Amino acid sequence: MQYGFGIDIGGTAVKLGLFTQDGALVEKWEIPTRTEEGGAYILPDIAQAVTGCLHRRGIAQCLGIGLGVPGPVSPSGVVNRCVNLGWGVFNIHEVLGKATGLPVKAANDANVAALGECWAGGGQGWENLVLVTLGTGIGGGVVLGGRILYGAHGAAGEIGHLPSNPAETEVCGCGKTGCAEQYGSATGILRLARRYLAETDTPSALRAMDNYSCKDIFTLTQDPGAGAIRERYFDFLGRFLAQVCCVVDPEAVVLGGGVSKAGQALLDGVQAAYRRYAFHASRDTKFALATLGADAGIYGGMKLVLDEFGGTKR
Predict the structure, then answer these.
(1) Based on CB atoms within 10 Å of each CB, which residue in 49, 167, 182, 220 is the most buried?
(2) The whole model's pTM is what?
């Protein structure tokens, strides 16, 4: 039996998974992401965790390491700055490979998560999909023909920063204005809610809440104001995803992130809006919910290992 590692580097923790060559998860754990001194400790800590696991379990055969990185990564492994980690430009395949003695394949974390959902999660059965994570921002990952789409600069799938409103004056986290994630993320729906409530006199229980949440907007199913806000949100996401699908033409769009906890209500609302805006050839694109949650990255990392370095692909 051969093994491999799927690894997901986050801003506060690194998730690691040990898998068998047939894709079964044997063990998963986390280590802190130490971002001090420009993130100099992150890869040595990962190397120590990996080699320690191999030694502890007495594993002699390891196919390699697949990992998701929170920033652009080229197909050759060149990381083009990860601001949250303090990293500049370097080849992560070479550095981590030298530290572990194992083959390494890396990609942007959202794309790796998309590959994980495609392989073992909500995207099973489709080889062409877009994963859209609706959290604090909007993350995007694209899989075409069962493979991650990297792009020329390792930045393919950065759909959260599609320019969506030239009239916007509030600044996005990326420094621009009018990005898609300013309206389609969990924080985006709250921005839409604040503006709607300020612009209208529609009755709503939200007006009496000091700190209403995205969950409140979805659970107040009979509330006129919350209902109108949901419709504005669905309309934005439907139009936004119609634009994405004009470029990518996926079989399916898989929705993840905190907002996806709204479940079927989110799927129904977004899909109905999408069909109003979609190009006719992609009007019947399927919509599904992500199922792997925080484990999508480690599953996607292992799929990278199997695709790049061999093994039995489940």
Answers:
(1) 182
(2) 0.91
The pLDDT, as a whole number, for residue 121 is 97
Closest listed residue to residue 59, CA positions, set 15, 102, 29:
102
Q: How far is CA 170 from CA 174, 194, 199, 264, 291, in A?
A: 12, 13, 17, 31, 33
Q: What is the pLDDT of residues 154-198, one digit of tens each?
A: 889 989 999 999 999 999 988 899 999 999 999 999 999 999 999
Sign of torsion over alpha carbons 182, 188, 194, 199: positive
Q: What percent of the chain has pLDDT over 70?
A: 99
Residue 151 is which amino acid?
Answer: G
At 62, give phi and psi (nearest 5°): -130, 125
Is 311's pLDDT higher than 70?
no
> Lowest-confidence range among 229-238, 262-271, 302-311?
302-311
Give, in order, the Cα–Cα distances in Å from 24 to each of 19, 56, 67, 123, 271. Answer: 5, 19, 17, 18, 33
* CB distance 95 to 43 below 8 Å: yes
